[in-house]
Amino acid sequence: MAVNTKRSPRSDCPLAGAVYLITGSSRGIGRELARTAAEQGASVVVNGRSPERVAVTTARLAGEGLTVAGIPADVSHPGESRRLVRETLERFGRLDVLVNNAGLAMRAPLTVTGADAAWRLIATNLGGALFPTLAALELAAATLSSITFVSSLAGLYGIPSVACYGATKAALTALAEALQGELRGTGVHVGVCYPGFTENDPEKRFVSPDGGLQPVGHNYRYRRTQRQTAAWILRSIRRRRFKSVQTFPGRLIRPLSLLAPWVLRGVYRRGIDRIH
């Protein structure tokens, strides 16, 4: 897919000259991350599993005068992740920021979760962040300046009925913490973001207990727009923050889990009862 060069980034744009690779950016929060980063002057690689969806999103952003390139790849596979990073370097000559945003959601009790569903979540949410990171560290070490993982509030504390999803998102915290220690002194920023409830695309699907896909079904009353969440993630990257929690209630999870875990468990139980 051709790179759009219709508009050169202004020198006053905060991301001018930077190359961003955002996984899972053909739709949802990832698409708004790509749009916002490109509006701020970055050259952005749009990624997703579906070549058709990547083409549509890339064409839409290019039509807005943004510098983007579409590279379809399934980041849950090591070879595809290496190809994605390699083609990014071939098209733009460098890679500055990797945003590991690709992920699948699931809402089901662990007692009814099948092995296929569990493996699908592990492959996408954990493997889909680990493999691009390994490829970027190997192939783009000369220019890489930031690696960010997009987690979830479910990754901060175990929430009933999202056990498998939460476990894969919690694993990103351990990955980021270890990587930050390993890269200390290299100048490479490592961050992990925990977004709050954010609006979904109408066609968004959750992983079903049998490993298939099902409609989201429930809409949370209080949620942020994809644009708001994308802008918040990019701010966290620019400010080189290590851990960023988007909402005030989210920032209470950790202290409550230590000081008053019974309060947290009660809040979660009531929330899950409302969903059911």
Write a concise synopsis of the structure shown.
This protein is α/β, with parallel strands linked by helices. It has helices at about 30-40, 50-65, 80-90, 115-140, 165-180, 225-240, 250, 255-260, 260-275, and strands spanning about 20, 45, 70, 95-100, 145-150, 190-195, 205, 215, 245.
Question: Which labels suit this protein?
Answer:
Rossmann fold, 9 strands, 45% helix, 276 residues, 13% strand, seven-stranded parallel β-sheet
General description of the model:
By secondary structure, this protein is of the alpha/beta class. The protein is built from nine helices and nine strands. It is 45% helix and 13% strand. Helix 3 packs parallel to helix 4 and helix 4 packs parallel to helix 5. 46% of the residues are buried. The N terminus is likely disordered.
Beta-sheet strand percentage?
5-15%
Morphology call: globular
- Low-confidence runs of at least 5 consecutive residues: 1-11
Chain-averaged pLDDT: 86
Q: H/E element string? A: EHEHEHEHEHEEEHEHHH
The level-1 CATH class = Alpha Beta
Assigned CATH architecture: 3-Layer(aba) Sandwich
Q: What is the count of helical runs? A: 9
Give the total of beta strands. Answer: 9
Spatial separation of the terminal alpha carbons: 43 Å
Which percent bin holds the helix content?
40-55%
